[in-house]
Amino acid sequence: MGVDKNPALIELLAYIQSTPNLEQQIDQVIAMHGLSQSHLHGYPHYNTTSSKGLSAHNKPAFLRLRESYNHRKEPLLLLVLLIFAFNNQMRFNAKGNFNLPVGKRDFNARLRRKLELFQARIEGDSFLCTDFRAMDLSTLSAKDFLYLDPPYLLGCASYNENGGWSVGDELDLLHFLERANHRGIQFALSNVIEHKGAKHSLLLEWCRAQKWHIHPLTYSYANSSYQTKHKHAPSQEVLVTNYASLMGVGNRGLSGA
Which pTM was predicted? Predict the structure, then answer.
């Protein structure tokens, strides 16, 4: 089961799951709005290179598509926006309108394959639109597994702007995981313990007190569109678990909050 309190995300996941010929529907929207199709024409067709990206060509069409989605709120339009948006992220303003700018990439061959695999992976899954604080842990057992990927308190990613995730939210989540642990439920929490020279003291102290396990993760964001004066400062993503080994967990049930 996938859980998130953003109704647009839950609606999108259900749409991806239930829609046959999804790639063709996406291509129809792309063609209708005049967005780039680099998998067919290559970058030279748009007077650009892979390193420069396609944002200059796609910006006018992307803004028209964004305006259309904000008026109609159709999940297919949101999916195409995510494909062409800055770092493929989802962000809404206080009025509920999608407000990310255009990104460098389009619906290329690599992304098409990823979407195909994702659609197959979520076949038969269920999705629930709720806040993690409203979840009833008594409905879960030691046979269940919780994976949580919250907004990172340490940092200012687009999904955590305008006070989207507070210290209070972080504390509530940590207490939620303590209650899950008391019920014998295994969990894994994605987070960051160091970012732009700052340390996530709250999370580190909680892990020490609870004797949780911190597993460092290594990812490359070389293709990211982010620009920051701290780009050479260390940033350490981790997976926090209440079990020692990462082996043998992949086949268990998965929930997100």
Answer: 0.82
Phi, psi of 256 (to 5 degrees): -120, 150
**Residue with structure tokens 């006070």?**
163
Superfamily, domain 2-121: Adenine-specific Methyltransferase, Domain 2 (1.10.1020.10)
The residue assigned the tokens 């009833």 is 136
Place of tokens 């982010």: 226
Beta strands in 89-140 (DSSP E): 127-129
Torsion sign over Cα 55, 61, 64, 68: negative
* C-alpha distances out from residue 141 to 58, 113, 146, 181, 185, Å: 48, 35, 11, 10, 6
What CATH number has the domain spanning 131-241? Answer: 3.40.50.150
pLDDT (tens digit, 0 to 9) for every residue of the chain, 257 residues total?
999 999 999 999 999 999 999 999 999 999 999 999 999 999 999 999 999 999 999 999 999 999 999 999 999 999 999 999 999 999 999 899 999 999 999 999 999 999 999 999 999 999 999 999 999 999 999 999 999 999 888 865 555 555 578 999 999 999 999 999 999 999 999 999 998 889 999 999 999 999 999 999 886 544 444 444 445 557 899 999 999 877 644 434 334 44
